[in-house]
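>> Question from a student workshop board

For tomorrow's exercise we were told to take the sequence and the ligand below, predict the bound structure, and bring the output to class. My setup keeps failing. Could a helper post the expected result so I can at least see what it should look like? The ligand is adenosine-5'-triphosphate.
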Amino acid sequence: MQKIDGIRHIIAVSSGKGGVGKSTIAVNLACSLAKLGLKTGLLDADIYGPNTPSMMGVAEQNPKVTEGSGSDQRLIPINKYGISLVSMGFLIEEGQPVIWRGPMLNSIIRQFLYQVEWNNLDFLVIDLPPGTGDAQISLSQSVPISGAIVVTTPQQVSLQDARRGLAMFKQLGVPLLGIVENMSVFIPPDMPGKKYEIVDDSNKGVPISISQPNKESSVVFGNLAQLIKNQFVNT
Ligand SMILES: Nc1ncnc2c1ncn2[C@@H]1O[C@H](COP(=O)(O)OP(=O)(O)OP(=O)(O)O)[C@@H](O)[C@H]1O
Ligand SMILES: [Mg+2]
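>> Workshop helper replied:
Here is what the output should look like for this input. Compare the format with yours to find the bug.
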């Protein structure tokens, strides 16, 4: 493992399941650390689905490269809200897919760690892709991580995947800082005193289209099935 000169602590934000709010939490954690006066960087390690440039309002920017040649050159992060940001999103056309195999992912993550002009950061927050795959392993084996945060929603399926994430960090020897339970309640903006639990029928082991066939969402699933039938089954 190779510590990065000029970075004191690396915090990884991870989740088992996709779409639970990792990037939102990584971005807001980085902004909040910067607001405390700490020198903060944000590395978007979601190579396949980089979202941080648009969340930080810098999707149109292109990072510059330092002078020199070959391995001496360093990528200069984009600065916004006092945060140094690097993302694959700056290097590809918006809306284009990135189709890479594991070894290429490993090498781009290493480049993002070692070939970027990270200037004396107190914290580098890393926004990971979902799951327990190549990116997590590659990162954990490249640099010492001070701690990981696992993000989940209250739904059983997300918690199941979060447990896999916790076990992975344990196996990789990365200390766990804590779990963020996101999207647990809905607070109506016009009734801020009220709180609604977000109900999840998938916890019960009976899909809603079976348990409550007349409910609005079950009717929508029925319409979807009918459309597919009409498209593919000639009767
Ligand atoms: N607490 C919240 N309340 C409302 N919307 C939220 C909340 N957290 C996240 N979102 C929204 O949910 C969507 C998914 O969030 P986000 O992109 O941060 O998830 P992610 O875990 O990074 O997804 P991916 O696995 O695809 O990287 C975004 O549109 C985000 O704005
Ligand atoms: Mg994300």
